[in-house]
Design brief:
single chain; alpha/beta; Immunoglobulin-like; TIM Barrel; 4 domains; 8-stranded parallel beta barrel; 22% strand; Trehalose_TreZ; GH; hydrolase; Malto-oligosyltrehalose trehalohydrolase; glycosidase
Length: 581
């Protein structure tokens, strides 16, 4: 078997394979590459040493059986026998579900999660969006401190378990999307700098030196990240990738890394005959990110839309701290603007940032499915001091209103696991750092961050305490009892309605009309013949819809259609979806 590694500054590179050490040779056709052959099979342990230094795992390792600090293991991708014929599932018309493998079940494995996929298929979900799976030190964590971008975290089950998960999902008609991190690597177990210029001091990020996307040596670094992305899609038959914090990718080259990535993914989609897509997390509010390359954009297929979340969150909760301040001044107006224009900050002044922010998107050209809308995500829950979900502070009726807005809005909807039954469990920030100094630094940093906002140290969960992760695991007995069962039934009804109603998947943002009364706390919008009305106030609201004939499509509480006066009477903290000629 041939082994290879990029180490452009090395004078000598050796391979340790199954306990035997041999020298690698420079590849005459590729500058900086070293190659050699050794006897190996699936599971064989190996690693590389640069200039007689310690043996390190392969930067392109597909498996780390003993964690990121151990030797790599050979993975024979052809060994897996795929059971499901899968032609793919495109993003338009999708309903996504963000899932963290380590807390979706108490077992915290891919195989255990696969056993619960039937719940998602019955719910009407189309795609499961897995939080990061690449290897990181320890057993439990969010996954954003990964250090082996090509390998599946071994405590989750490793590469074979991911293939079994994808096979099971596809058998149920579910696509699978994976969250990948290209903007940084974790601080522990990161050996890439020993091999080459994977990082650069030219730019600095919140995590230190930036990934080298534009300095000398960046061609190979970009190829490294592109290869990893394509490997997930090709070798594991994934349907898409979610790209973490692309605004933190420092790249000054004429062809941005994201454009190169979207070009490669579109080519792979054409080669495989399956629709593949890229979803960005971006803080820029720049529509060029999701504008096709032929129109001068970067060609990504969708992005998270935090503006919709922030507007909805402030309308529901009244919170106004931090970045919510910009939206809390007039939350109903902010929500109306996002429903009709996509972004709230589209060149407007942001008090939180102290400057103008964003850029308008062209509603006549950009289909609305390219923006993801959501009520809750791992970030918006887990980055709160106590990881409290909306269900900890809102009534079932307000949760139903949030669901109605998210699942009938023009954006591609996404749920966070457990949201569909108003889970009573929190989702807190937890880590399992094996480096004692790093563990203590994270613990102190977390408490210091929230102490600045008035939180007592004892009220901020210790990320390193195993109980913090255990509290965050879903309780699968909840969906069978009230009030969870009623909320779950409402989500099922709304998702089924979205799938069955053409107006609810119409991508035309320009066709949406919104009315609201901030004092009475109601908002209503029109999509084709569909009318959606939510009353976030405690008192009943009379919402003017007009006297045209109407029929109720879905309602949280019983309501009558508008009479001759054209008024729809909606109980307090309730919502309704109608069809009106």
């Amino acid at each position: 078997m041939q082994f290879e590694v990029w180490a452009p500054q090395a004078e000598r590179v050796t391979l340790q394979c199954d306990g035997v050490t041999c020298a690698l040779e420079r590849d005459p056709g590729r500058a900086g590459w070293w190659t050699g052959e050794a006897e190996a099979a699936d599971g064989t342990r190996y690693g590389f040493a640069v200039d007689d230094g310690p043996v390190r795992p392969d930067p392109r390792s597909r498996r780390q059986p003993d964690g990121p600090n151990g030797l790599s293991a050979v993975v024979d991708q052809a060994r897996h026998e795929w059971r499901t014929q899968w032609s793919g599932r495109p993003l338009p018309g999708a309903v996504l579900y963000e899932l963290h493998v380590g807390t979706y079940t108490p077992e915290g494995t891919l195989d255990a999660a696969a056993e619960r996929l039937g719940h998602l298929a019955e719910l009407g979900i189309t795609h499961v969006e897995l939080m990061p799976l690449c290897a990181f030190p320890g057993r439990h964590g969010w996954g954003y401190d990964g250090v082996s971008p090509w390998a599946v975290h071994e405590p989750y089950g490793g590469p074979e378990a991911l293939k079994r998960f994808v096979d099971r999902a596809h058998a149920l008609g579910l696509g699978v999307v994976l969250d990948v991190v290209h903007n940084h690597l974790g601080p522990s177990g990161n050996y890439l700098p020993e091999f080459g210029p994977y990082f650069t001091e030219t730019h600095h990020t919140p995590w230190g030196a930036a990934i080298n996307l534009d300095a000398p040596g960046s061609d190979e670094v970009r190829a490294y990240l592109l290869g990893s992305a394509l490997a997930w899609l090709r070798d594991y038959r994934l349907d898409g990738l979610r790209l973490d914090a692309v605004h933190a990718l420092a790249d000054t080259r004429a062809c941005h890394f994201l454009e190169e990535l979207s070009t490669a993914v579109d080519a792979l989609a054409a080669e495989t005959g399956r629709p593949l897509f890229l979803i960005a997390e971006s803080d820029l509010n720049d529509p060029r990110l999701i504008t096709p390359r032929r129109a001068g954009g970067l060609g990504l297929h969708a992005q998270w839309n935090d503006d919709f979340h922030h507007a909805l969150h402030t309308a529901l909760t009244g919170e106004s701290q931090g970045y919510y301040a910009d939206f809390a001044r007039a939350p109903f107006a902010a929500l109306a603007k996002t429903l009709t224009g996509g972004f709230f900050h589209d060149g407007t002044y942001s008090g939180f940032r102290g400057r103008r922010h964003g850029r308008p998107l062209d509603r006549t050209r950009l289909p609305s499915h390219r923006l993801l809308g959501y009520t809750q995500t791992h970030d918006q829950i887990g980055n709160r001091a106590q990881g409290d979900r909306l269900s900890a502070s809102l009534s079932p009726g307000l949760l139903a209103c949030a669901a109605a807005l998210t699942l009938t809005a023009p954006f591609t909807p996404m749920l966070f696991m457990g949201e569909e039954w108003a889970a009573g469990t929190p989702w807190q920030y937890f880590t399992d750092h094996t480096d004692p100094e790093l563990a203590e630094a994270v613990r102190r940093g977390r408490r210091r961050e929230f102490a600045a906002h008035g939180w007592a140290e004892e009220d901020v969960p210790d990320p390193q305490d195993p109980a913090t992760r255990e509290r965050s695991c879903l309780d699968w007995s909840e969906p069978e009892r009230e009030p969870h069962a009623r909320v779950l039934a409402w989500y099922r009804e709304l998702i089924a309605l979205r799938h069955a109603t053409a107006d609810l998947t119409d991508p035309d943002l320009a066709d949406i009309k919104v009315a609201h009364d901030a004092q009475a706390r109601w908002l209503a919008f029109r999509r084709g013949d569909v009318r959606v009305a939510v009353n976030l106030g405690k008192e009943p609201a009379a919402i003017p819809l007009g006297p045209r004939p109407a029929r109720v499509l879905a309602t949280w509480d019983p309501v009558d259609v508008p009479g001759r006066d054209g008024l729809l009477h909606v109980p307090g903290e309730s919502c309704v979806v109608l069809e009106q000629d």
